[in-house]
Amino acid sequence: MLLNPSVAGALLPVVLLIAAGYLAGRRGWIRPGSVKDLSNLIFLLLAPALLFRAMSTVDVSQLRFKAVSAYLIGSVLLFALTMALRGFNRQAAVLGLANTYSNTVMIGIPLIGLAYGADGMVVLLTLISLHSVVLLTSATVVLELAVAHEHARSSGAQRHSMARTVLTALRNAIIHPVPIPIIAGLLFAQTGLTMPEWVDKPLALLGQAFGPVALVMVGITLAQTPIGAHWRGAMVQSVVKNFLHPIVVAGIGWLLGVHGLPLAVMIVAASLPMGANVFLFSQRYRTSEELVTASVAVSTALGLVTVTVVMALVAHLY
Fold first, then answer.
1. What CATH architecture applies to the domain 5-317?
2. pLDDT tens profile 4-39
3. pLDDT tens-digit profile of 98-155?
4. CA atoms of 249 and 72, how far apart (whole Å)
5. Residue ranges per structural domain of the chain
6. What's the rounded Cα separation, in Å, for the pair 65 and 5?
């Protein structure tokens, strides 16, 4: 099967950004001690700017929810299955996010725009409006609860203190660099106000820097990661994300009666490689960092083939 030009055009820049970071890491331009600081820059500044600005123009009343619900329900089910198989801990939560969080912005927008035009973009942008709200916020809550659970077990906390532990975890999940800008952006959007240009422009520039810098960071970490030791695990995670995720979304879409172009766009979106946010969560919560780094790289490279296959299979839907 020939490589779809739309797929190549969307994925190759991502591969090159990861490769650039890998080169920087191998050459020692970014020292290991600086990786944590760069991760904080991305997670605490660039990502909030991107999320707030993306949410600040969302008119909830105009969103098309039916097709997107197939994607979100399928993702939540796959996330829950990962947690059930691996246990309630932060590693399971991060790997569950890896199995379900697609690179819908850097890869999805150019790919869907080229392949499906304006109608497809309407469906994708509806998904993007809710993608982070549902998946990242839910993952944050689960991760904070998992951290609290692990802490309670290690410290021998009594059962009567667990209610306080859960409340603390939920508070930490809300006062967090991901949910706060999402909620703030949505609240601002509902006011009907327009962002002043002198505020919007810096936010736009910071948000635009998120994707490239995050992917370069993946490459830098990859250069410091013994990927050979994680090759098998990375391949398993990539197959789940690139193949099983779209199959689950397709099944849920069929059950919900979604069809035509909206279903095709949701299935292709589910087949996209892992988003860089998964890597940032693994760094933030200090779990499976090497496996997730390898998985993002493998998933992106594998996507050159798998996304082409998925797009060929869904061609009959529209």
1. Up-down Bundle (1.20)
2. 666 667 677 878 888 899 899 888 888 877 877 887
3. 999 998 877 777 678 777 876 787 788 778 777 777 787 788 888 888 887 777 666 6
4. 8
5. 5-317
6. 30
